[in-house]
From TrEMBL:
PROSITE patterns: OMPR_PHOB
PANTHER family (alphabetical): TRANSCRIPTIONAL REGULATOR REDD, TRANSCRIPTIONAL REGULATOR REDD-RELATED
Known DNA-binding region: 1-100
Domain OmpR/PhoB-type: 1-100
SUPFAM superfamilies, per the entry: C-terminal effector domain of the bipartite response regulators, TPR-like
Keyword Glycoprotein: no
Recorded family membership: Belongs to the AfsR/DnrI/RedD regulatory family.
Record GO biological process: phosphorelay signal transduction system; regulation of DNA-templated transcription
Pfam families for this protein: BTAD, Trans_reg_C
Protein name: AfsR/SARP family transcriptional regulator
GO molecular function per UniProt: DNA binding
Keyword terms, alphabetized: DNA-binding, Plasmid, Transcription, Transcription regulation, Two-component regulatory system
């Protein structure tokens, strides 16, 4: 079985889709796929499906949805499958279990590659770090579970994955900056700073990429746009480290020309106190 969460929901057994068309069974499959090999408690599934507005028939209805998933699974597995349907989507005390390996789910492959990238980044192996981060991000095909109407439990998972992806993008850019790929990053960072107008880490990267590409005026203009957005929309000034980076650019500080920052630090931390 192969399950994709990082984009539209996809789940296949030997090339045959087992994704149901109905919304609530899709929620169940998505949530259980995020915790492969672990029991998903019935109360958690019910919370995902109905939040606090549980119908009187909640337990019976949940069992019906599980049966529908098992039927889809059984059709895909065929009569000669080595493991029975109830061995793969198993009933356990207090809940249900999707008995598959973690690497059958793209989320776990993504997180493994991201961890490997972070480990390489922390030791200064920027080529490996950038490659691992890029491989991790290549597993994404859109917003996580973009075609699943998430309840309260899945919504937390989706938010977590979105934040994780943004952190991985930021770290990959840090590695690329260390490798001197400044000009190549400008277009991407322009898009990212528009999408995340208050994200100081991305703005610091954009400023540095512009500055090191010989575009000091554009780097200073990027700071002014961020400052204006923070003051007008949130009532705060940029952080002290970003202000120090801005002052360093005004002073043409030679420290800004060093290709590699602190061995295990981010671009945003270059001017940390």
């Amino acid at each position: 079985m192969q399950i994709k969460i990082l984009g539209p929901l996809s789940a296949e057994v030997d090339g045959t889709s087992i994704v149901p068309t109905a919304g609530k069974p899709r929620q169940i499959l998505s949530l259980m796929a995020l915790y492969p090999g672990r029991v998903m408690p019935v109360p958690t599934l019910m919370e995902e499906l109905w939040d606090t507005a549980l119908p009187a028939s909640a337990l019976t209805t949940l069992q019906t949805y599980i049966l529908q998933l098992r039927r889809k699974l059984g059709t895909a597995m065929g009569p000669g499958a080595p493991a029975g349907v109830r061995d793969v989507l198993a009933t356990r005390h207090g809940g249900y279990l999707l008995q598959i390996a973690e690497d059958c789910v793209d989320v776990y492959r993504y997180e493994k590659l991201a961890r490997e990238g972070q480990a390489a980044f922390a030791t200064g192996d920027n080529e490996v770090a950038a490659a691992r981060f890029r491989s991790a991000l290549d597993l994404w095909s859109g917003a996580p579970l973009v075609d699943v109407k998430a309840g309260p439990v899945l919504d937390i998972e989706v938010r977590r994955l979105r934040e994780s992806r943004l952190v991985t993008v930021e770290r990959r850019i840090d590695a690329d900056l260390r490798l001197g790929r400044h000009a190549e990053l400008i277009a991407e960072l322009t898009d990212l700073t528009v999408r995340h107008p208050h994200h100081e880490g991305l703005h610091s990267q954009s400023m540095l990429a512009l500055y090191r590409s010989g575009r000091q005026a554009s780097a200073l203009a990027a700071y002014r746009r961020l400052q204006r957005a923070l003051v007008e929309e949130l009532g705060v000034e940029p952080s002290p480290q970003l202000q120090r980076m801005h002052q360093a650019m005004l002073a043409v500080d030679p420290q800004l020309d060093v290709l590699a920052g602190p061995r295990n630090g981010s671009t945003f931390d270059l001017f940390a106190a």
